[in-house]
Design goal:
The protein is an alpha+beta fold. About 10% of the residues have low confidence.
């Protein structure tokens, strides 16, 4: 049964008003989607972890370099060095995949793992291991 049987003209007017409201909401949502797409390029999308031993005779691969990059390879690489009696943590900014600071071999590997992202898990030799996570 047609729900607008009694007041066809009034109901048509109401229906047009509702359609207009819906169109306005759609327009707002489309703008929000576009804004989110623009912001999204700056979200962390690439993560690379390279684990290693900071000291030759200290096992367990407890030290690591962690690269966190956006889609344009901008972000940070964080290194945690586990020594006998202390930890040292370093953070270096990355722009377009490179840093103004001198990078260690492990930090470069973490960045490459994040950028390339071909492997979900990779284990190198006995002393190092690397991991890759994709966030999209």
């Amino acid at each position: 049964m047609w729900p607008f049987k009694k007041k066809k003209i009034e109901n048509l007017s109401e229906l047009l008003k509702k359609i207009e409201k819906i169109e306005k909401k759609i327009e707002i949502l489309e703008k929000e989607i576009e804004e989110t797409k623009k912001e999204q390029q700056f979200f962390i999308k690439k993560v690379g972890v390279f684990k290693f031993n900071a000291l030759k005779n200290l096992g367990g691969n407890q030290s690591f370099a962690l690269a966190l990059l956006d889609e344009k390879d901008n972000g940070v690489v964080i290194s945690n060095l586990v020594l006998r009696e202390e930890n040292r943590i370093f953070a270096k900014l990355i722009k377009n995949g490179f840093s103004e600071n001198l990078l260690t071999e492990e930090e470069r590997k973490a960045i490459e793992i994040a950028k390339n992202g071909k492997e979900k898990f990779h284990h190198n030799k006995k002393t190092t291991s690397s991991y890759h996570f994709r966030t999209h």
